[in-house]
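User: Quick one: structure for sequence A, then sequence B.

Assistant: Sequence A:
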Amino acid sequence: MLGDATGRVLGLGQDGPCNHVSGPAARDKFINAIGGAVRRALGAAGLSEAHRGFAAACFGFSGGPKDKQPLIAEMFSIANLVVTHDGLIALAGATAGRPGIIAIAGTGQLAFGRNAAGRTARAGGWGYVYGDEGGGFDLVRQALRAALRTEEGWGPETALRRVLLEATGAANTDDLLHQFYTVEWPRPRIAGLSKLVDEAAMAGDAVAIEVLNQSAQHQANFASAVRRQLFEEGDPVCVATIGGVWRSARLRERFRLLVEMADGVTCAPPAMGPAAGALLEAYRQAGLSVPLSNVPEVEKR
């Protein structure tokens, strides 16, 4: 996303993915993706697609910024450059640059916040083996565990067994368990089945409801941990929810009730998307404090 000195958005471009840069092929993929996104944004702004000079820029990536910053510096002439992680730009967009907290729940999970002094803190997001409690993959993992207990006769009956088998074509839960260990079922694909947990809960399945409630509790615990690190008791704090897991109205409402038990805390959807957040961080890096205008609908949340 490109903007002028007043905060007016001029253009938006998309390309990718480009998370990894180790090795010649990955490096070329990164350069092509970033270059393609910038060219498309410049084109949308009516500027020369060969333009490479900017007063300020912010790039937010998953996987850490260290190996990406030298490549960005080679590709563009940027007076004020910040290369950071994707959590920061998601937060900046969600809160329109103001202090606050985000609870991200997609395939994985992360809570991240920043206070008025610019200090940041995180909780969770430690990956599918050691963490990510409450994320999409974890929801399906808990649903499968419940289905396995049902099939073995030591857990309560639940519709989760039936809906998981129907959705995947597995013969039984043991078969499904082994399918989930194969390359045909990467974690994002497994996480996509989390909507089945929500559907079962909406139909009144007690086990599915408990899985969603546990997810909400985990997410609330992470958000509260970030709040305690950054804000005083009673300070006004907005917690924004980001990611596909929050499409579940039941989970979202349960999370809201839990986090708003603390004085001063409110829960809300994100104000804008991460590209807008990156642009706001670029202005911040340049020492400018301007509100964004002419923001594309895709970045209005």
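Sequence B:
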Amino acid sequence: MAAGFEHILNWRLLAGSHDFPGPDGGTCINEAAIVAAGLPYRAIRASAECPPCFSRPLAAYALGLNDAMPDAERPRLMAFVLRLAGSADAPAIEAARVKFLAQASVQRLLPPLLDHAGLPALAARCEGARDAQAALAAARTAAWEGGARAQAASQRGRWVQGARASAVARAASAAVAAFTDARCAAEVAEGVAPFVEGSWAAAAAILDEALELGGGAPAIDTDLARRRLDAARAGPG
């Protein structure tokens, strides 16, 4: 989905916020999206600092992924530089996006980690959650079970088992929080990724699907976006 966009747009995504892009074109995803849309550049430290035309939950999730992804994985987000401006929608749609990000994280990111930690029945429960309420309940159970297993493993000196259980507890706790804070959905991916190959690709796919909820953002011409980004690389004035 995002392959090649880092070359087409001649830009590099970096973790954290930046006062202004340098000659290497380094910014976070939301800062790059602002420039690509032709809006005045601003440093973004939280989704609330994005222009009003940005969906708050999508910007929060994208920012969380941007800051958590290793450098080698972050180019997956480049395609979204053209899609975040104009993504703001009605309150009901934004609420649905928060719910979707959380539920998808429970159904698609947690199960492989739970399997890895020796919790196949709980993995199946998360994957098969029929709605947000069921997904939330499954995530709460996973957080509790992970914490209990981590404590038991620590007491027995089973450090590898304890590390897996601790990862379950952290990721599942983030999933619970994601039902009210979209950025926490990115923390689910961050907790799962060290143990499960392909987690960052799955997280980017979740962002792609969340963007399709509602009216969607108007397309930004790639050539125009590249010219805007190149101008920003040259510096103010």
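The first strand starts at residue 12 and ends at 13. Residues 98-214 form one domain.

User: Thanks, that's what I needed.
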